Amino acid sequence: MRRIIAEDLDWSLATVSSLSNLCLQCIVNNFEERPIYEDLTSSEKDFIQNRVSLSLPLHFAANVFPDGVYWKRCCEQKWKVCDVSNYGESWKRMFFERQLENIVELFVPGITEPKTVLDMVTLCKDHIKKLNIAQLLPPVKEPQTEDEEQASELTLANEDDKSGMDHFDFRILLGKLTNLEELHLVYKVKSCGMNFEWSMFEMTNRDCESLAKALKSCKKLKQRHAEPKAFLSRPRDVISHLFRLHLSHLEDKKCRLLVKYLLDHTSLRTLDFSHNVIGDSGARAIGKLLTKSKLEILNLYDNNIGGPGAKAIAQALSKNTTLVSLNLCLNRLKDEGGQAICKALLNNKTLLHLQLGANGVTWLTALSLSSMLAQNNTLKSINLSCNTLGEVGGNALEEAMSRNTSVTECSIHLTDIEERRVSVINQMVWNNQFRKQETNPREKNTENAN
Amino acid sequence: DFELTREPESSSVAKATLTKQTLQDYVFILICPTFTAQRIMGLQKRLTTLVTNIQTAADAKEMERRSGMEDNCKIRYERLKDDAKACQEKVEEIRKGWSIVTQKVVYSELQSVLDSQQQLCAAVIEDKKKLIRELQRERRVKEDQYLKNLRRLDEEIKLMLDRMQQQFQNLSKAYREELTQLQVEADLSHKGALNDFYSSKEVKNLKTKYAKQKDKFMKQRQYLSEVHKRSRQHYKRIQKEVRYTTAADARKFEEMWATMEEEVTQLAEKALAIDSLICKHLGLAWERPSAASMESPGPCRSQEHDTNPTSHPLQTRHLPHCSQRMMDASVGPSLERDSEHCTGVEEGELSSEMLMKVMELLCDETGFLVEDKLWKLLAPMEKNEQTTVKLHSLFAVLGLEEKDLAKLAEFLLMYKRQQEEQTEVRLHTELSIPCLFLCVSRSSLSHPARDTSVEEAYWDRLGNIITEDKLKLWDAAERELKQYE
């Protein structure tokens, strides 16, 4: 006798399904008019979430369905790749975060109604924890005639002309997201093709101002009825953990403005201003931020920081007790900056990862580094690649590594050090790592992950 | 260890280095047998550096580019400065010239001065234009370089992705190997631990005891299984015998019946012939009795009933005796209950005293079947009540029900009719338990009892083919004949 094996697990041979199933199906079909959900058992709730139409109005669905299969279905319908582990295993959070990111990324200032953003925000303000906005569109420019184009080529652009290129204003958004922890921003336009203009990849001054104001923390007055006196609640930071603004042509002035408003964010843990054009005065502002807040990770990769800027950061570093990772690769630190940083680390007992690659430092810095390593035994990983350290530098490093036991990663590629010496240093570092691995096997993965 | 030399320009070379590295890695994995942790770490480190090397190389290039750009900027700046200076000089000249122009009145002189001014201005403009063109050319070159750079970066990113992929594969392979090795080690250590555990003294005695007992049980089991086998074979043989004997009996019966029938019919024919003669002599009408009365039911019908499943042939002998007993016993209680099932005539045949005696005997014999509690309850009651209660419980124990009693009564009545000759009720004191169970077993009772009434009727008919009257007639005829002698 032939048997039918159904691929659809819900299909049953019974010509008439059970009464409860029929009822649930009826509920599903009429869900919008009569949303019966709360009173059901959990398996019935799953049934409903699995079958209810995905075209329900969002505001309705957001209120009815908690995190679950419904949101999984929504996500998978909208986007091809859905990795829920990036969103704290919450499909609802993934859906709303991606929705909001999409809306902001496609927002054309001057054409798109801010209402679209605001509507979405009212639905989901409690679910958004991370916003990773990968592009910000400039307003549409009127196509110039040929004469105008030629004329504009020869005239110098004024600062004022750029005022027409303001991007999305974050003031309408950031204050309302009560649970925001991470904010990643890039002022760039994806797939602009032949319409490339440098101004598409820059933040304007007004952008910076509006962003800075948006970052201002909100102080809330809370009145308790039970107690006679009202008290101020702790001011809530707009972003609690991570702020990343990279590849946006952030220069000193803008950097200082933003940092001014970030000083209030006492819970900020990670600051990423990589691939910008921050110079010394910006670095000074960041140094001030270092002293005031509890930053753990500071990333200033690929900027324009020079010796004076590095000195400011070094000064903050010598008193700092929270910073764990500092990345100053691809700046213009030179020996002046490099030595300052190394000297600062004599007193610092918390920094674990230091990256000074591609900064034009030489054997002088290597010397100060090795003298620092003699005293410092918290530093775990050092990156000095792409700096011409030479033989003297190599010698100093070799000496330092022979005495040091804490450094488990040392990157000295392309440093003009003799190959033999490089392998010796690597061997010593490897021994350190292995020794640590034997005593504490758990740390292995975290070390290599860095 | 892996050394990063100049980053290769073309991707094919890059791929070649990549494969070379992976080959080295594989060799490393194969050769390094012990210290899996170290091996894994080394592998991780090596593979990660492969990926980060690309970044480092890119950083180096970027630095170069930046320094190049700085130099270029400086050069350009210098150049612009020079140009501005030269221009400045020329502009000064032109300005001086304007003052001369205003002085001149004569047309030709004015003309020439203006011409010279124009030339100077043209020269300045020419210089500027040249500068612009050069700067534009530089810009175009820079743009091309930028494009080339972008392409190179794209390739590097692809290479990085490749390497990351490789790293992923290699590492997962290494982890899997490590895992299997750990499992093997864990198994070994586990077994080793167990062995140690078992080989220690305190537990050793138990082990030997256990082994001994195990042997003993094994032997017993073997023995019992053999016994079982043999008894089964025996049983099978006996079953075959039974079947054979029943078949043989049936055949014998058939033959007997056939011969008897033949004899009887012959005798009947003879008697009928004589009868007809006598009648003829006496002048009486004679008619042959109907053929229906001579009809023989045949041996087959009785065979049907012969195939009643009587569970044990050895005990069929006991069947008549105990069934007699049961019949009497059951009829007694059925008297009290299902009076409609019993024909009153037969009941009357049984004397109640005999019945009581039988019942009591039954009770005594099967007393063991009655529960102890019931014994205690019965003690204060009268004897009669005792017996009835006992019978009730007995029947309950033996699985009889009321409707079965009816069948039982029928069955026993039939037997009673068959054995009417037997006036004595043999009171056997010994009653084998199996045969009692046999009697009580439903199967034997539920089947229709051997109904031999039809045969009896037949024999009776044939036996009485010469009726009483005819016999009287014959006697009279005989007397008359004798008178004539």
Automatic annotation (TrEMBL), chain B:
Xref: Pfam families: NYD-SP28 (PF14772), NYD-SP28_assoc (PF14775)
Location(s) in or outside the cell: Cytoplasm, Cytoskeleton, Flagellum axoneme
GO annotation terms (biological process): axonemal dynein complex assembly; cilium-dependent cell motility; regulation of cilium movement
One Gene Ontology term, aspect cellular component: axonemal dynein complex
Region (Disordered): 290-317
Keywords from the UniProt entry: Cell projection, Cilium, Coiled coil, Flagellum
Domain of life: Eukaryota
Principal place of residence: cytoplasm
Coiled-coil ranges per UniProt: 125-185
Dynein regulatory complex protein 1 C-terminal domain: residues covered: 457-484
Keyword Coiled coil in record: yes
Limits of the Dynein regulatory complex protein 1/2 N-terminal domain: 57-157
InterPro entries in UniProt: DRC1/2_N, DRC1/DRC2, DRC1_C
Function comment: Component of the nexin-dynein regulatory complex (N-DRC) a key regulator of ciliary/flagellar motility which maintains the alignment and integrity of the distal axoneme and regulates microtubule sliding in motile axonemes. Plays a critical role in the assembly of N-DRC and also stabilizes the assembly of multiple inner dynein arms and radial spokes. Coassembles with CCDC65/DRC2 to form a central scaffold needed for assembly of the N-DRC and its attachment to the outer doublet microtubules.
Family statement: Belongs to the DRC1 family.
Listed name of the protein: Dynein regulatory complex protein 1
Organism in which the protein naturally occurs: Neolamprologus brichardi (Fairy cichlid)
